[in-house]
Amino acid sequence: MGILGKYYNRIEEHFIKNASDDQLRLEGVNRNTNRGSVNLPSGKVSRNSMLFTPKTIKDWVNAVALATDGENPSLFLLSELYDHLLLDAHTVSVIESRVMRVLRSKFALIDNKGDQNTELKKLFTRPWFEKFVSECVWSKFTGIKVLETYETDENGELISTLSIPMAHIHPIHQEILKEPGDEKGESYCKGAAALYYTQIGDGKEIGILSQIATLILAKKQAMGAWLDYIEKFGIPPRIVTTDNKDNRRVKELLNMLTAMINNHVAVIQGNEKFEIGKMPESDAFKVFKEMLSFLNSEISKRILGQDGTTDNKDASGTYGSLKVLQEVADDRHESDKLFIKYIINKTLIPKLTKISSFYTSLNGYEFDWDETDEM
């Protein structure tokens, strides 16, 4: 090592000796701008393309069986299944109605005397906190979540919340896997990494989505059958009767009928006769529509406890009966808020005060929901 190298080493030793924990941490972040080089389990997670393939009841059975295996569970198949299920707009909408109600609920930071600190509240009016709370509520539907709160700015304030992909979590060993399906990964609950990771939910729980998966899959099959019906019977059949047995002329007539889907014209000759066939007389629209409405109703009942507030045009009853249904949804909202309050007070705030001195002012305060009404 040359003289210049020794000089820089002395400067670095002096910095380490006199720097605060926050400075050391910030220096580490600055040196490792590439996340893969940071010594955290998430830095070794491989990112693969998302490929959507049709799912069946058999896929649901296999995914649940593998995820609940007592010895070596894997969430890989379940993660793929959930990605497929969450393409359903109605399901995502009713889930988000629970998530958004929590995110838009007023909260406060309260000390031991019950007094609010409005300045501290600003620490949580940040995108990283909204992402944290959102992922916590989503865990009720997808099962275990592992959230990383590591990246900070120059002031030591958190920048973002990272959700570890479900397929890369080993729920029993509490490890983050490099590749989905690996039997061994790196622990996120031991050593220095434990400070930056929060596990939401029990590793044995796989969420409400596993219970409504058959409804969503049936809905997708019904929609697929409806599209097939439209393709086959959406346009009346076209028939040409001819006594010309020439294969060349038969092919011409066939091409003509095929082209009529867009052109609606035909040129026939001699004894050739053109006819429009009859459509099926059954009310296919009602059959498929009723099926989809029934499945949407069942999905809403499982997630919200009722369906009167999700599809008002299909709901029947008086204002009083709909008010009762809204109160049923409110019960789940209160349960969600209690769930979030516990996680923030017992896990998040204690970790924040250790992650960065920026949050030391939170000592002695608790998170609570503000139930006051504005006139």
Q: Biggest sheet, strands in spatial order?
A: 3-2-7
Into which percentage range does the β-strand content fall? 5-15%
Separate helix tally: 11
Summing up helix and strand content along with how strands pair, one would put the structural category as mainly alpha
Quick one: biggest sheet? 3 strands, antiparallel
Task: Summarize the helix and strand pattern as letters.
Answer: HHHHHEHHEEEEEEHEHEHHE
Distance between the first and last residues' Cα: 73 Å
Number of strands: 10
Mean pLDDT: 82
Shape field: elongated
Quick recap:
Helix content is 49%, strand content 9%. The chain is mostly helical and 375 residues long.
Structure keywords:
9% strand; disordered N terminus; 375 residues; mainly alpha; 3-stranded antiparallel beta sheet
Describe this structure in words.
This protein has eleven helices and ten strands. The chain has 375 residues and is mainly α. Strand 4 and strand 5 form a beta hairpin.
Question: What is this structure's SSE topology?
Answer:
Blueprint: H1 3-18, H2 21-31, H3 57-67, H4 76-85, H5 89-103, E1 107-110, H6 118-121, H7 127-142, E2 145-148, E3 162-163, E4 169-170, E5 175-176, E6 186-187, E7 197-200, H8 209-233, E8 238-241, H9 247-263, E9 273-276, H10 284-304, H11 319-355, E10 366-369
Helix pairs in contact: 3-4, 5-7, 5-10, 8-10
